[in-house]
Amino acid sequence: MKLLTAIIRPHMLQALREPLQAIGVSGLTVTEVKGYGRQQGHTELYRGAEYRISFIPKIKLEIALDDALLDQAIEVISGVAKTGRFGDGKLFFFRA
After folding, report:
1. First to last CA, the chain
2. Domains with residue ranges and CATH for the chain
């Protein structure tokens, strides 16, 4: 059994769900989180005032899966969620 943790953009969640189910992932835990990395946030204009948003909304997926599914799940998440721009997120997995 392995634990796979992925930090992704919020709009990628629905696009990942079906491909993960197709390879045999039976369940996952989703948490709404905020953070920043190389993106370093961004500025927005609201009612004429400009302000800086330091923490960007992200989705954290935690998937407990069989050893045999780990490589497939990593490929699916990388293939679907990766756009090549800053802010795509990270993948972490723990091999015991």
Report:
1. 8
2. 2-94 (3.30.70.120)
